[in-house]
Amino acid sequence: MWLFRKTTRKAFSALCFFSASVSILTTASIILFLFFETLEFFKEVPMTEFFLSTTWSPLFEKKEFGIWPLITGTLLTSMIALIVALPTGILISIFFSEVVDRKYRRLLKPTLELLAAIPTVVYGYFALVVLTPFMQNFLPNLQSFNALSAGIVMGLMILPTILSISDDSLQNVSHNLRLAGYALGATRLQVTFFIVVPAAGSGIFAASVLGLARAIGETMIVSIAAGQMPKLHFNPLEAVQTMTAYIAQVSLGDTPYGSLEFRTVFAVATVLFILTLILNFLALKLKISLNSV
User: Fold this and answer.
1) Which helix or strand (DSSP H or E) is residue 10 part of?
2) Which fold is adopted by the domain 68-292?
3) Model confidence over 122-148: pLDDT tens digits?
4) Does 190 score more than 90 pLDDT?
């Protein structure tokens, strides 16, 4: 029996080590693959043009490779999504955690989390066919493809992520803190917003970062609803193109493999990877700072 347990522990440890090694090697392989393909791209396109130019037209006859229109399009749609989802998700999570009865919470929360099960292509066509024509009644300058509709629908898409994590963070706040607030004469509203929410601040912040990362990496919604116009602007009423939408456009198969136009995919993907890495690093540092306060 002792020998069997020892063998089982060693086998389990070896399996865990193998799984961790596969994850690390897969990540390293992806990074190296992106790096070498991006290096081939920069052998033909100067980095000064890539990072300083404001025009992106690698698929046109007059080719220009300024990445900033794709970056601004990505940030614009992602910020709109976060503006829609963050306050809504936090307020709903506060309602579930501090106000509603538990039996209704068990019913309502899974219902809202079903939004995560809707395919993103459905969200995209909803933004294009339903939301945009509706908003054009109030915003006559709104184009058929625009960043506003795509951002709003992406906000609905990331809402379950922010809602679920924020609600779990609020639920994990010790009930003694609430009782202490009531003992000092605080109202329910004061206890909620001045004690419970600050105590769950790191979890709420993590929810917002995960939601933002999910929005930055979204492809189908922006490909369908935001358009394919890589222009450097911050007008949500006009069409934009995000980095993920451009990658999807080139990956359809019309661009010859190994060509300069095809290698732009890896250059854009590298920028997207670095942007996400910086975002996660800053989120980790800020989360540590919040936990230490």
Assistant:
1) helix 2-42
2) MetI-like fold (1.10.3720)
3) 999 999 899 999 998 888 888 888 999
4) no
